[in-house]
Amino acid sequence: MATEQTLIIVKPDGLIKSLTGNILSRLSETKLVIIGAKLVRVSEELAKEHYKHLKDKPFFDELLHYIMGDVHNTHRVLALVYQGEGAIGKVREIVGDTNPEKAHPVSIRGAYGRITTSGVFENVVHASSSPEDAEQEIKLWFSPFEVVGDIYPTRDVVLEKVKTKVWA
Ligand code: UDP
Ligand code: MG
């Protein structure tokens, strides 16, 4: 089996329900290693890019509000990169089906997800579903410096006049 990377996101409902510890414990059953982890305040731009494959769905706007934390009034998600043999499949197995009602009750989504009255699947976690998606998603959410190890090729660029913030 090939070494893979996969992006996991503890979505706003996972955070607000205090499920982070539980989710990380469940994922540790895989014996994969965490090579990246950070809290992210999801911008509309990031949300739209992450879910661009669903942009024509009737629930798209609600999905954006959900991942941005508007629905749960907690504007952050926990983004993680896991690495190891068959990482994508192993994580998806524990995470369960997209639809929490179809997900195995022992899976994370089956145990903790719900379907809202407007039909959005609040399914607690995101997990990449193919090596192509994983690469695209990890590059979208993480910079090369934020993951431990050289997982994808990088190039050097010289930045000039970049405005940023430092502690005062
Ligand atoms: N989603 C939804 N209704 C659907 C399909 C998807 O609310 O009929 C939401 C759900 O939160 C899901 C996300 O959109 O996790 C991304 O959908 P995708 O088909 O990529 O499923 P996933 O890869 O997350 O299992
Ligand atoms: Mg998906």
Architecture blueprint of SSEs:
Elements lengths: L2 E8 L1 H5 L3 H9 L4 E8 L3 H7 L9 H9 L8 E9 L1 H9 L12 H5 L1 E2 L5 E2 L2 E3 L3 H11 L27
Antiparallel strand pairs: 1-3, 1-6, 2-3, 4-5
Bound molecules: uridine-5'-diphosphate and magnesium ion.
Give your account of this protein's structure.
There is one protein chain. 33% of the residues lie in helices and 19% in strands. It is of the alpha+beta class and 168 residues long. The protein has one domain (3-146): Nucleoside diphosphate kinase-like domain (Alpha-Beta Plaits), CATH 3.30.70.141. The strands form 2 sheets. A 4-stranded antiparallel sheet has the order 2-3-1-6, sandwiched between helices. It is globular. The mean pLDDT is 97. Uridine-5'-diphosphate (UDP) is lined by residues 54, 59, 63, 98, 120-121, 123, 126, 129.
